[in-house]
Amino acid sequence: MAFHRAPGVLLVLLLLIGLLGCGSEEKQPLYRIGFSQCSMAGPWRQAMLAGMQKELSFHPEIELRVLDAQDDSRRQQAQIRELVQGGVDLLIISPYEADPVTPAVEEAYRRGIPVILLDRRTASDQYTAYVGGNNVEVGQTAARYISRVLRQRGNILEILGTPGSSATAERHQGFAQGLSAYPGLQVVAQVTGDWTVRTLKPALTKALQAHPEVTMIFSHNDGMGHGAYEVCQELGLTKRVRIIGVDGLPGAGEGIDLVQRGVLAASILYSPGGEEAIRTALKILHKAPFNKQNTLGTIVIDSTNVLTLQQQNDKMASQQQDIERQQGLLHRLQQTYASQQVVLNWLLITLLGAVALGAAAWHSARKNRQINHLLALQNAENDKINQQLVHQNEEILQQRNQLEMLAERARADTEAKLRFFTNFSHELRTPLTLILGPVEELLTSSPDLTEPQRHDLALVRRNTQRLLQLVNQLLDFRKIEVGKMEVRATESNLVAFVREIVDAFEKPARMRGVDLRFQVAQPVLLAWFDGNILDKVFFNLLSNALKFTPDQGRITISLQPADEGRSVRVSVADTGHGISPQDQGHIFEWFYQGEQGAVAKGSGMGLALAQGLVRLHQGQLTFSSQPGQGSTFVVTLPRELPEPLRAHGPTAPLQLSLDEPEPIASALGHPLEEAAAETPSETLVLVIEDNSEVNDFLTRKLRTDFRVQSATDGHTGFRMATELIPDLIVCDVMMPGLSGLEVVTQLRADWRTSHIPVVLLTARTTSEQQLEGVQAGADLYLTKPFNPTFLLESIRTLLANRARQREHFRRELSIDTATVAPTNPDQKFLADLTAIVEANLTRSDLSVEDIARSLGISRMQLYRKVKAVLGTGVTDFVQSLRLTKARELLLDETLTIAEVAYELGFSSPSYFSASFKAHYQLAPSEFRNLHIAPQY
Fold this sequence. Notes:
936 residues, transmembrane, nucleotide-binding, Rossmann fold, alpha/beta, kinase, transcription regulation, 14% strand, 6-stranded parallel β-sheet, Heat Shock Protein 90, 5 domains, 6-stranded mixed β-sheet
């Protein structure tokens, strides 16, 4: 009986062992996808594969087989057929060339295998789906971005990818189509880079040297753009030439990183599409709806959004790492579960063996002891890990306590500093009040003051008020910090309130030619607000807009309801130079001062105070800025405020606590009302001074004796000097951008302005610094503070010396000298001018415009240069040369007087005779008779 049972028991044991073996086998993939990649070289192709693998990490039931064609169409054909014969369920193909691989793709499609084309298409429509970017749109996007950056005018160099590549052809096509809308943009050169920098650098170096007018480079990918930047570094062109690439990949040395480091001005995103290809493949395999054409979008990555994209990519990378860690943990848990399942199965087998065979009991007990030992080891390991975690928590707690102590210490230090500044500010109010009071009394009750005296007293009052306003801002800052600033809101018309503040800026804006616009959606917008607080907000915003908006610019104040009428939005937009990307993250910080160019620096409190006051009103102050195009600040306020912020009981009538803003000196001259005080003098003096108060003071003092124009920075001053050709220049030394010494150097190097005397003003008083100014070419070096009378006398002396030099040049242009030896810039100018006139003496229609065009300057510049060097007009100079030449021709008996007249460009012999007689007191015939001996 037992003998007969043994085979049955053994059969059961064998069956259980078979089941155990089946349970321990790994699951085979449900679907197999074949991927034929044209090439695995380059970060963009690697990013495509990485995207596929990232998406597949969520789908362990998918097996992906990747084959690299290594940019060989024949190899890719063979690999596609190999994947088909291998029994894949779906094909993803990124073709190297369209035509050669089309037959293999069609063959797979006809066999019923779904085919997804990735990034590039074939020459046939026999495919299941397409995933990829639009290269034509990439080129068009680049053209539009360049037109905005270069303001629709400039010269471009294009770096192409591999010839014959569809990406190269389509990006070039889109770029050409985009540029066709901007006739001011021209592609002056093209360089083939083959997607790498191997052959790029020599060709690009040669092209840039041949085309120095290039200001923008469009590279078909970021890698070639990086190589172009290195070439520009070697040629010293990185400040003048900007580079735009394509791809916009994350990672070190890729597009986003290059834009963030300033290597590229921008990168056009061209997504690799790996994730989207896998998602489309899963829809096809799972019989779900899908799109046949899946075109990936593109954006421009530049300084305005690169930080956001970098942060998003970092966050995505962090999330991907978390997912991979969780998947690894899940995999380990599955392995643990599988091993435990195996142990349980073996225990079952051991138990059945014990029932069937008594000898199996010992084996089962041994196995149990082993398992218990393993569990004990696992528990010990868990205890060890728990102890480590407790130790780490204690360290973290200690570090947190240390940080809290440091933070408390920093708060105490800051509190002490703020208390000192607050007390100091209170102490300043008394002497400021004692200064402001008598000045106000003198201005209002002293009718005998002269206009210059009133102007100087107004200057004192304005600067005293400025100091008082800074003190008040510091005190307001202190109130906000300690929570003592209270909002006492009343319901009123916000439109009328803002209009009253805007009206205060109308006069200073008009004086500088700034177009100040106030736009409202409706005439009345009721809201709860504290006017005594909000006036500081809008006054600060409008003061900044007026300060940073250039002459003839525009400031637009808009007021409209928002959030379906629950809020109100007030925006202040200007057309200034904008806020640099490095400053945008700090402009609301207390006492922060960014790069402000030639505009006088402020205290760094205005915007921070405005933001704090807006937050007190439970509102929000935001901004947007595009460097070179302007800034927009937006105040969003709720129309209703909670009961604790509303005023209970009568309130004092609203009084704007801020005075009328002071005008900022114009780069093109002073206000019209001061122009009436100018003298009839023809002598033009150009003042270049960045401090508006000093600029105005110099202008007023000099205007009593000369015509005066002024500029507030070195670049504008040099431009005005070349355009106006003044008789003398007074220039400050310490200026942002272009210093006074650099202005003098450029003036002396330019023949248009080389003759102009320059007086330098500076607070630098050492002998070495004064020597530096004289070596730069200055005629006089005065230190601040200076005596205005001494300055006027010095200017008169320099102008007198210039007049004597002018007489010297006139003597050099004697009747026997046709040209002047070019021994200095002024003499070279006279030599060039003389040569041009002599070459055109026969032209009766020779005009001043023709001569100026030949010299490459304007008519006014030519007139003022000739007047400054010779003391005569251009027409008189031409006439003098003609009459000098006439003396020579009249000695030739073969020419009649009429022929001499026409030879020298006179319109008629009679006009020639009259001109000759007026100049030499002899008629042409009399001159000939006196100088030609009679023939006997």
